[in-house]
Structures are given as C-alpha cells and as structure tokens.
Amino acid sequence: MSDLGLRISDLRASVAGKQILNGIDLVVEPGKVHALMGPNGSGKSTLAFAMTGHPNYEILGGSVRLDGEELLGLAPDKRAKAGLFLSFQYPAAIPGVSVANFIRTARQSVNPTDLPPAKFRKMIFEKLDVLDMDPAFLSRSVNDGFSGGEKKRLEMLQLAILNPKYAVLDETDSGLDVDALESVGKSVNAMRETDEGKNTGFLIITHYPRILQHIKADVVHIMMDGRIVKTGGPELANVIEREGYDKIREEVAGGVA
Amino acid sequence: MASLSLDQPAGVSTETLERIMAGASPAFDAGTRRSALAHYEALPFPTASYGRYWKHDLHKIDLSEVVTTASPVASFPAIDLFAADARAAQIAFVDGIATIELSDALRSRGVIVTDLATAKRDHAALFSAAVGGAVKTATDKYAALALAFQNVGAFVHVPAGVSVDQPIVIRYAAVANDAFPYTLISAGEGARVTVIEQLITGAAARFVCGIGEVIAASRAQVDYAIVQAANLASKVIAARGATIGIDATVRIGLAELGAALTVSTLQALEAGTGGNAEVAGLFFATGEQHVDLATQVDHAVGSTTSTTVIKSAASDRGQARYLGNIRIRKSAHGSDSSLRDDVLLLSETAHVDSIPALEIAANDVKAFHGATVGAIDADTLFYLMSRGVPRVEAERLIALGFFEPEIAKFPTEVLRTALRSSLEAKVTAR
User: Fold this and answer.
1) pLDDT > 90: what percent of chain B?
2) How far is B416 from chain A (nearest CA, A)?
3) Second-level CATH architecture of A83-220
4) Nearest-CA distance from A254 to chain B in Å?
5) Rg for chain A (alpha carbons), in Å?
C-alpha cells in the first residue's frame, strides 16, 4: 500500500467537551479533488480544524497521515510545513501586518529555500491577476476591514503561493457572489494546471454544490453527525442539489435500521 | 562648609544648585530656579494623588546620589538618527556639552536652535515669553525639580510664518552625569516645525528628570516626538506640556522604550478656538520595566479638537499604568475629543492598568472613549501558525502589527523605522 495521500483514519475529536467527530475515514490522493458535503452541524469544519491543529479541538483518537507522516500531535506550523493548507471560512484579521509581509513570511516558513525577491514578486502579481485582485491589496492589513469576498480571495492567493501538497477549503464558497466564486474557481484550476500544483490534493468542504460547478470533484463524500455516511462520484453532488440532505438522511437511517 | 570635590554625588541640595548655576544663569533665571527648588522641597510625593494604582514608591529614589558635577566624558559614540542631509538642525548633548548645528539659511530666517545658557543670554525676551507656559512647575514636584536643576536643555524657536521642512533633532545623552533636561519649543503664528527629541544613556544607571514645553501660537503646526531609550537600569521622570493657540495643531508622540522606571506625564492645553491636539503614545514594558504614563488634554475653550491614542504592551514581569484624561470645561462648547487606548499583554506575569477619565462640563460636545486589554488572540495566532509560521515568529508579527498604527502617527519615515526596530528588539528579547 502506498503511503501517498492525506489519510484520515478513525478520527475522533471533541470541542468544548462535546464529541463532534465520531470516526472519520477518508483518503485524498495527490492531484485528486474530494468534496465533503453535509448539512450544517455535521462536523465538517471541526474536521478541518482538528486536522490542522486548532488548540480548541481535542483529538480523542485516530490518525491523520500526510504522505506517511503523522500530523496529529504536531504544532499547526509543522503541519503546514508538512504540506497541509487550510482555507479558512472566517480568516482572522491581523491589524498592522500587511498582506505582502504576511505572504512573504508564510512562504519563507513553508518553503525556506526560496525564490529571489524579483521572481517572488512576479509570481504574486500573476496570481493576483488570476484572482482579479488589485495589487493595492498587498499593502493593506491582513483581512482587516476586508469584505467576505476579499477574505476568500486572499485565502486563494495564499493557496496559490504556498502550493501545499494537500489543501482543505472550508466553505470557501459561502458568502461569495457569482464573480468572486468564479475567481476562486479560476484560481484553483489555474493552480492545478501548473507543474507544481498538479499534484495537490483537495478536500473541498461545502454545504452547497455550486462551487463544484467551478471546481470538478473526483469524489464526493457526505458527512452527517460526525461520520462519512456516503461516498460516490460527482453525480452525488447533483443528488444533493435536487433532493437536499433529507433523502440521504432517511436512506442512512433506513440502512442502519 | 566642606567643599565638594568634583565627581562626587552631590544630591539635589541648594548647595549643588548654586554650584551648577554659578556663572551660567542670569539673575532673573537664578531666582526662578531657586524658587523651583523650594517648590520641589515643599510639594508632597505624588503617591496620594495617584491613588491605589500607583505602583512605584518615588520616596525610594535616593536623590542624594544624584551626580551633576562629574567631568563630562571626552567622547560618546552616539549614532545620529537623522543623516546630516535629512535634518534641518541638530543640538546634541553629551552630559552638559552641546554640539549645535544650524544652517545659515535657517538662522537668517530667525530660527533659533540653541542651548539654554545661550538662549537666556542672547534671546532673553523670546525665552522668557515662552518659559513655563505649558508645564505646571508650581504644582508638579518633579517638574519643579527639573526646572531648578536644568543642567542640559534646548531652546527651539521658529518665528511667525516660517516653515521648517526637515526635523530639528535634540539629543540628550546622560553619560557621566544625571540629567535634568529642559526642552522649550516656541512656534510663532503660522510657523511649522517638527522636533524630534531622543534621550539616551551610557552603560551606567542614570537619573533623568526633565521637562518639555511646546508653545504654539495661532495657526502654528508643531510635531514634537520624544523617544526615550535610556538603559534598563535608569530612572526617568518627565513632564511635558503643550499650549495650543487659535487654529494651531500640536502633535505629540511619546515613545517610552527604555529605563527601569519611567514616569511620564503630558498635559495639552487647548487655549485657542480651533486648536487641535493629537497625542500618540506607545510603550512596551519588558523584563522588569515599570512604566507610568499619564496624559491630559484640557479643552479650555470651545471648538477645539483632540485625539489621544495610546498603545502599550507588557511582557515578562513588565508593569505599567496609563491614566488618560480628557477635560472639557464648561466654556468649551462644540469641542470634539477622543481617547483610545489598547493594551496587549504578552505574559501572565505582565500587568497594565488602564484608567481613562473623562471630565465633561459642557453640553454640546463630542467625547469618545474606547479601550481594549487582552492577550494575543488565539484564532489570530492559529491562523498565522496554520501558514507555517512558528509560534514565536507569529507572536512577534502580531505584536509589531499591534503597534504599527501607532508608529504611523510619528513623524518621518526615519523615526518610524527606528521605532519599528526598537520594538522588534523588545519583542525578540522577551
């Protein structure tokens, strides 16, 4: 068996003393796009935070391996260095720290053997262009007074520049208008067409299927009550679109009964 | 009377005062200084008036050890913050010895940058008109002491209508002697000037007790920024004040970075309609540092505006207290003021008390107050760490970012860069 992949096994986690993840098993292969769908409260964001090491989330058991390396127990920065990236649903503001400084620091941290400044600059400008972002953005404080769309674009800019092995996109589509969603899709697809980005595996967490019209999923998982209850091909997203989650909930309940 | 030998501590006695004034102080001035010393001796220690928040027992500063008569060091390696072509003028002291640099061009426009003895001798009328106009030496014990001893000091005068584009730099280096620096800045009608004052020390612990006054006539615009970077064994007490005329603007930036103990007060008096005071203060108590800062903006007349923004951090066992006061007198209709202070605590043993006070006697005024006290936000820290940034580096970025909007209020990019690196060194060293 290959070690490659973001391999989540029997992951159980709690937040504020309440168990939310009840044993998650999921494998994202390099270069593949997995969608993780589920109703509100099913534990999708908890999975994202538990994997990346948010201090409020307590791991009760299981493992998360990234190309063979166990991530659980590592500090969040070590997980990032291993190649994991989380696009936040609600990224924090960092007053007084410019986007340019932040991105440079982040890139230096995950990839210390780095590009010369001129090349790095050129790369940032290319990615900004794909995301329809004004270069003036770079001198603003990170997420400070940003609109919802600007925050998500900045997450995508970081994704493109940090070029992780595996990226978890937590509700990147929420609160986005059509144009912003299209920019996000364009950015991710552009990244996946590059030599460096083509092997990045994606776990796209979403409530609604519409982001999957912009980024094609290879596999769709449905999560409910802290478990993956169904896994299928891209057509599964269409089922959700047509019938909502209730049908699947009934089906799962019926199966268990 | 036993004669004191040089280089011996002589304390702050009448005898020492007479010795340091001998031949250096004109008669009118000697009288002022003798009565200031009498005020100092008569005034109580400020303990009671500061109430239960007062953490530092000023009784314990042993002023019998104060040195004012040691021979100045022959040379002291101070690096100019501003290159010669980036400053309009400079007056740099090593103990009591001044090196003054003022171009003929500015001199011919009536700009004065000089030491106190010269000011009192050659510019007596201008000096006398301004002196004592902004700091209440009759009621402030340590300001009275500073006024009495003033063994170093600078007089900056910019005549009506004159704009000085580049900063005038004042640097006090307290090396072999304790220092009682006195800065007097007077700006005539419509004059514009930026004054940047630095306080540094050598390796020895020093006692520094000073005054800074700004007298801004109508429509004058004065930027006065003070960077206190004494060594971490020194004690620094400073009283600053500004009196702001009609339609004048005075911006004061206080960066209290050094010293074991800093007690810093600032009073801005809005004395003319349309006056505007902008106060920015920052300090960062690291190690065992104690910082005590009190600011007051007094809206004495109507249609005046003021903003006060203080940002402070504390780490290790750093202790600090900030008293922020806005006073709007009954006569000050239509005034608009704001007071905001933010505190960042970087360790559980650090402590900052933030005590705002708004005294508003007029009705149709605007007065805003806001304050925050807190540790580094866990979500912000996680966000940075999730990007591969190690915890220490993430905390450093967040702390520097916290100060950045305050740094932006200080004049000149040169000074802002220097402040950033001083703060960075403090964050890194913690």
Assistant:
1) 80
2) 13
3) 3-Layer(aba) Sandwich (3.40)
4) 40
5) 18
> CB contacts < 8 Å between A and B, how many?
84
Q: 3-state DSSP call for residue A174? A: coil
Supply the pTM of this predicted model: 0.90
Asked whether the beta carbons of B415 and B196 are under 8 A apart, the reply is yes
- In three-state secondary structure terms, A11 is strand
Q: Do the Cβ atoms of B300 and B331 come closer than 8 Å?
A: yes
- Structure token pair of residue B5: 């030998």
| Torsions phi, psi for B263 (to 5 deg) | -125, 110
> Domain residue spans in chain A?
1-21+47-81, 83-220
Would an 8 Å CB–CB cutoff place B4 in contact with chain A? no
Mutate to test the interface with A, among B376, B387, B392 (most CBs of A within 10 A): B387
C-alpha B307/C-alpha B278 separation (Å) is 5
Query: H-type helices in B43-111, by residue range?
Result: 47-50, 104-108
Instruction: Tell me if A31 sits within 8 A of A169, measured CB to CB.
Output: no
Confidence at residue B55, expressed as pLDDT on a 0 to 100 scale: 57
Which of A53, A54, A109 lies closest to B387 in CB terms? A109
Identity of the residue in B380, B385, B391 whose CB atom sits nearest the CB atom of A94: B380
Q: Report the DSSP beta bridge partners of residue B236.
A: B208, B262
Q: Does B385 touch chain A (CB under 8 A)?
A: yes
Paired residues of A64 in beta bridges: A8
The residue ranges of every structural domain in chain B are 14-272
- The 8-class DSSP code of residue A211 comes to G
Strand A57-66 and strand A69-70: the pairing is antiparallel
Tokens representing B364 are 């149709």
Q: Does B389 touch chain A (CB under 8 A)?
A: yes
Cβ distance of B389 and A158 shorter than 8 Å: no
Asked if A110 and B388 come within 8 Å (Cβ–Cβ), the reply is yes
Residues in chain A with CB shorter than 8 Å from the CB of B372 are none
For A28-58, what is each residue's pLDDT tens digit?
999 999 999 999 899 999 999 999 999 999 9
The predicted-structure confidence for A178-208, as pLDDT tens digits, reads as follows 888 998 999 999 999 999 899 999 999 998 8
Which tokens hold the place of A157?
Answer: 């800019």
- Phi and psi of B371, rounded to 5°? -150, 145
Name which of A9, A26, A47 is nearest A231 in CA terms.
A26
C-alpha A36/C-alpha A240 separation (Å) is: 12
Retrieve residue B23's tokens.
């031949």
Count of all residues that appear for chain B in the document: 430
Q: Which of residues 209-238 of B touch A (CB under 8 A)?
A: none
- Tell me the C-alpha to C-alpha distance, in Å, between residue A158 and each of A100, A102, A142, A178, B172: 11, 9, 11, 21, 47
Give the integer Cα–Cα distance in Å for A227 and A38: 10
Burial A119-130 (b: 16+ CB within 10 A, else e): ebeeebeebbeb
Q: How close B377 comes to chain A (CA, Å)?
A: 9
Smallest Cα–Cα separation from B313: which of B223, B422, B239? B422
CB B416 within 8 A of CB B225: no
Stronger pLDDT, A251 or B218, i.e. the higher one: B218
Residue A76 with chain B: CB contacts under 8 Å: 382, 385-386
> Exposure pattern of A182-220 as b/e (b: 16+ CB <10 Å)?
ebbbbbbebbbeeeebeebbbbbbbbebebbebbebebb
B/e letters for A41-52, b = 16+ CB within 10 Å, e = fewer, are: ebbbbbbbbbbb
